[in-house]
Design a protein that fits this description.
Helix content: over 70%
Number of strands: 0
Shape: rod-shaped
Order of helices and strands: HHH
Largest sheet: none
Radius of gyration: 38 Å
Structural class: mainly alpha
Oligomer: single chain
């Protein structure tokens, strides 16, 4: 939902007021409008800076999402490709433990 502004700095500067006998002091109105213009320009700058930051963050977010998908894919592929290797390494560990137990118990029985 894009909001549209009614005034911009140029419209504020060019705004003409009719002068009445008991109206406001034109110098005070000009001073106030000058301050409004400065604030308006500051807001415009802030909005453009924030839009730029949003763009940067969206690009960074997209890049990080792509890397996450890549890493998740690699992890899944590795998990899918290595179930036998994982099982084999566990069997190897069990065999080593068994051999170590035999050596320990054999050495105790010899004494």
């Amino acid at each position: 939902m894009a909001l549209k502004l009614i005034m911009d700095p140029e419209k504020i500067v060019n705004q003409e007021f009719s002068i009445d006998f008991q109206g406001y002091n034109p110098e005070q109105v000009d001073t106030m409008l000058d301050n409004v213009i400065k604030d308006y320009q500051t807001y415009d700058k802030m909005i453009s800076d924030l839009r730029e930051k949003i763009g940067d963050l969206e690009r960074t977010n997209a890049s990080l999402r792509a890397k996450l998908i890549e890493v998740e894919g690699k992890a899944k592929a590795q998990a899918d490709a290595d179930p036998m290797q994982l099982g084999a390494s566990q069997v190897d560990i069990l065999k080593r433990i068994s051999r170590l137990e035999k050596q320990v118990f054999d050495s105790k029985n010899r004494k």
